[in-house]
Specification:
homotetramer; 379 residues; alpha/beta; Rossmann fold; Dihydrodipicolinate Reductase, domain 2; 2 domains; nine-stranded mixed beta sheet; five-stranded parallel beta sheet; 13 helices; 14 strands; globular; Gfo/Idh/MocA_oxidoreduct (chains A, B, C, D)
């Protein structure tokens, strides 16, 4: 039945979770989802209290994923949770996603999709076999002006692409990294919790994703130089990756968590033989379009001159800024359309394929660095 | 009972309403409200369909305000709608607010609060007598950096204020105003629907409110020059108001709907004997703080260096932009606290007093212009 | 003879003069002038030393204006100084300009042209009778993007003008104004040295000039509210002027020297029925052009898409910023063309008429304020 | 004798030369130089006409460098040209500089200093032996805010540097590069005229220089990936270089001439363990200083809070933009001090060592690319 709201479950994202509130608001925003239950906390009592606070049926605040799956599957189809958002620590994403997909649930998964590329491929195959909807929340693809950029490039606004450059600079690790004890306590620097990579796994992969998302190009190989800053720190906190696409376009991805003072400075520049496009996440309502021999143009959301895809991604009149929650809301809206079986625009939400591409990119970056900055193919 | 969500009703804001989606998202955002019912549309069938789409109990999609009040009052107190958002056309705000307040409902009211200052005063008295919570949605006061500005000024960051300047420029009327037939069809230019003023009533009053909100100063008198552009257009589409505060501070408020190409350019600059502060709505995450003899500083949301009030008004880490929906969400959150009887920070939501001040300002502007730009006191 | 460089004399602007270096560099820049002599300092010995430092013929470092005129007139015409820049304190401009013009010299005069409007008119009549070239250095008119703005408006890019807004905010008086002794020592606050007005005389008039320069409109009347901040301070340090042009366009001019933290923030916005244009002096290489329903465009100097007038006002390839010295250099270049009797583009340099307009504006502002904010015509 | 102006000669830079006007204005600006003669054009008659136009002694408009040297050396020392600016095509810089230095002239040389690193080293040795002043015009080092950045880093404002990133993006080659005939005619793409590298030789080296200039770090090795875009184009038009400094700091230099729509977008970001600094050439009057846990600060020229070096590099009050000509003027001023034998601040002008470093960097970039992106040491 496509009429009502989609029943949503959450794994993780309970009390005091920053990412939890982002997902819940995104779900509320489009009025497409109804939060029904989930595993809100490792501590069952706390999860029940959370459900109470949100006025949910506490019987659907489960103690574990296994119980969640068992109990929900036992419900009649029209009462059952249809889609589950996985907001747990990184190392749990893969196993949880596998179980949920295997049980037939649609899944919305926080990044990173898995810890290894092999796991991502395994998950991709399962998703395809199970024919469920799988959304990977590369949030920045939900911004209207990122979608406008994608639409303009697809429409030929900048011609044949000849250079790509994306950057993601943060400084948040700086206060921790210089002290041996402090850095040992940062979970993102702990391979067991964080995975193989910190900087490229957490943020560099966003820059990579933005390039493939907006341009439609496929990165073929990378050469990367990464930095752990201290020998006892096992994971990268900074690095640069040279890239080449299948079409021979060269480019660069810069990422850093020791860019002291930077907050969340992700930006992308794409240049073609007819023009260029630039976008920065911290000023997300401005897209700069440069054309050979003409004044640069500033595209802003909410205007009829934008592509349909961008127009659909705005809820409000021009000049009223929308932000990160709205971007995530757009991704949830796109996913809802897919769950309902409606026609979905390409790019309406990132999927399992984006996850596989990202994990392969991260592994290629690490391998390149290990080999002393060799070119590594992303197969 | 303070535990559960606050039961929310809506009057207006149904299908295809731009302002409706803003209020609903704002209500969802803080997880403080549960939308229960309302009068969603003039057409009852359409209102019921809307309730169905949102999976509400259709029996609470009422045909009129009168029925709404009667039926809700008949419910047990713990089932009853506790707060009602009024999102109807301007000319209905006053009478609806009077009826709802009189019946004991808390109210969240779209701007303008009423059509005349006298009506606003009447409403203010009723609100005081009935001791209900009344929120007027001057949305821009919900931005974290506006609240930071208010907190910094209160803390003396710029010293004694010596100059204020606020501007609200839009261009949206330009495509309609130059054609006699077209301008006759713009509802905002129709005194019956829009009230006494278009430009100052709709946007100039926001600039006025931002000044009083951030500075704590009270504007004592105004001298205004307004423009209808064409003699057959009964309402202002542009104008400038000189202002003086009780403390003798001089300032200016510029407003225009014929500033062709401008989208929603509202900004405020306040200068004191120790420093200055500047903020622009279209780049809401930047607050510029200038001090005598020092480099300007750029304050951004989500940072611990901000005042508590500003910190509480952000949901996310620094560098992730929040926008208009988040600003409205903050106002809804503040209102929820008040409804629950909890301690509420001054400025957490604009109230009936702001409405009275705004209406008096608008009438003073009109009177000043009528008298050929005379100084008119705001009593 | 038009072949060689124009012989330039300076009155004032000697050692340690800030404005002196601006004019000399402006003169050198276009390689149109040769500095030959002048009255460089009240102290003759210091003036001679200055001439020596600049490797000038010290016999042409005169002790007074009278001697300057006498000695130069005694020289053969082809050796004589052809144009004199007046860089003395404000109160001397008028008498010096009168003497020089009367003696047949071309004049480049710093702002303000005179202390009163009557003096300016007197000077204007003499200039017309003597048929000399007279340049008043409203420096901001020399910026390429201001000229582009003028050219675009003249070419109809924004259609019929319907709103003008110019602002000039500084904070430099703030450190002096709050202390009775300090403010008594600021020469700009001393009517004997500064003239009738401080804020409007020094900076407000620039905003006025920019409006008339870029739009071609003539301001017909003004209503102004000015502020001295302290009763014992005789001159304005802040104010706002409502304006109306002959064609009925309304607008506003805001000026302040107590906008704490502001450096030299002069900006102009002009809106027509087809589009709008915005420019800010502190970012002088960007001109924003907004059109109904289209993305805003950013015009930058050095590009072939600019009007000829703007192109001629840049010396360098796009992307290499030019600044204030270059703007003044453009005005000197325009003046040189006029002195040589060559065809000069309208607007290539501001003239005596701009001086008369400015003085009348200042007097109207003061009179309006004196009458309690009445409308005063600029005759 | 230190009293008078320094006698300046020019080689090249005559009629219609873009770079000629930059150098002449820079020389005039500080009133330290007097242009006396030179070899203004390959065509002697045209050179003489140019001298006439500038009112120079035409007997010092020489037909060749050889004649220039012979005739000037024949003059008494106090009449002789003391410093010569070399503004000829790239391939002539080395031989001309060698001859001039060998003859004892001080030299101001346009970039690139030579075609090969070996030539640069040869020149460096001669300069040292001859004890002349040698200035290489890396113009961007003349901006006040670049000097402020250098001074702040030296003073420890950002602590120990941990990441550097510089970029130089232009799009000017785009209109020519895609057509086989057109690109064959671009002199910068002709190795005979331009040298071994186009993009890195012309602009990438500026980014490299800015890094070493502002940080004081020495780049030890590079790994570069460059792009000619078409196989028949012999020279690079785009590329990225990974860098490592002697202290183990990692960084990246991005350069492109096919960044379509970019004008002259050179920027630098340096991050340390205490803060970060960012500067962009197209907005040269803003320097962003970020500190851990504090609002970012915006430094602007002309303010007493700046370092002395930066203060000395501004001629005017805050808020009046200075640009590229002023930057070059600062370099000329620094060179003048050195020629006069006065104390010169480190960094007051770039010298032959900067030229040697730059050429070695360029050759390392090319070698790295040739070897398939290997790490190459800069010896």
């Amino acid at each position: 039945m496509n009429k009502g709201k989609i029943k949503l479950g959450l794994i993780g994202g309970g009390p005091n979770s920053f990412i939890g509130i982002v997902h819940r608001i995104a779900a509320y925003m489009g009025e497409q989802y109804q939060l029904v239950g989930g595993v809100f906390d490792i501590d069952h009592a706390s999860g029940i209290a959370f459900a109470e606070k949100l006025e949910l049926d506490t019987s659907r605040a489960y103690e574990s994923l296994e119980v969640f799956i068992e109990k929900e599957l036992a419900l009649p189809a029209d009462e059952r949770i249809e889609v589950v958002s996985i907001l747990t620590p990184n190392f749990l994403h893969h196993s949880m996603a596998m179980k949920l997909v295997d049980a037939g649930f649609n899944v919305i998964c926080e990044k990173p999709i898995t810890i290894t590329a092999a796991e991502a491929v395994e998950l991709e195959q399962l998703v395809e076999r199970k024919k469920v909807v799988f959304c990977l929340t590369h949030t920045y693809t939900g911004y209207p002006m990122v979608r406008q950029m994608k639409a303009m490039i697809a429409a030929g606004a900048i011609g044949k692409i000849q250079k790509v450059d994306a950057q993601y600079y943060q400084g948040w690790i700086n206060p921790f990294i210089h002290d041996k004890d402090k850095r040992a306590q940062v979970w993102r620097l702990d391979p067991k919790k964080s995975g193989q990579s910190c900087c490229f796994g957490d943020i560099g992969v966003h820059a990579f994703n933005l390039i493939e998302y907006t341009t439609g190009l496929e990165v073929e190989k990378v050469l990367a130089d990464i930095d752990t800053l201290y020998p006892d720190n096992p994971l990268d906190v900074d690095g640069t990756a040279l890239i080449r696409t299948k079409d021979g376009v060269k480019g660069v991805i810069c990422a850093s968590q020791i860019a002291t003072g930077e907050e969340n400075n992700i930006s992308i520049m794409v240049y073609g033989d007819k023009g260029g496009l630039k976008w920065e996440q911290e000023n997300p309502t401005y897209l700069t379009y440069m054309q050979e021999g003409k004044p640069a143009q500033i595209f802003k959301p909410g205007n009829p001159y934008n592509a349909e895809f961008a127009q659909e991604s705005t809820k409000i009149a021009p000049g009223h800024p929308e932000g990160l929650f709205d971007a995530m809301g757009n991704i949830y809206k796109g996913t809802a359309l897919a769950i309902r079986g409606e026609k979905v625009r390409e790019g309406a939400f990132p999927g399992v394929k984006d996850g596989v591409r990202g994990m392969k990119f991260i592994e290629a970056v690490l391998e390149s660095n290990k080999q002393g900055q060799a070119w590594i193919e992303i197969k």
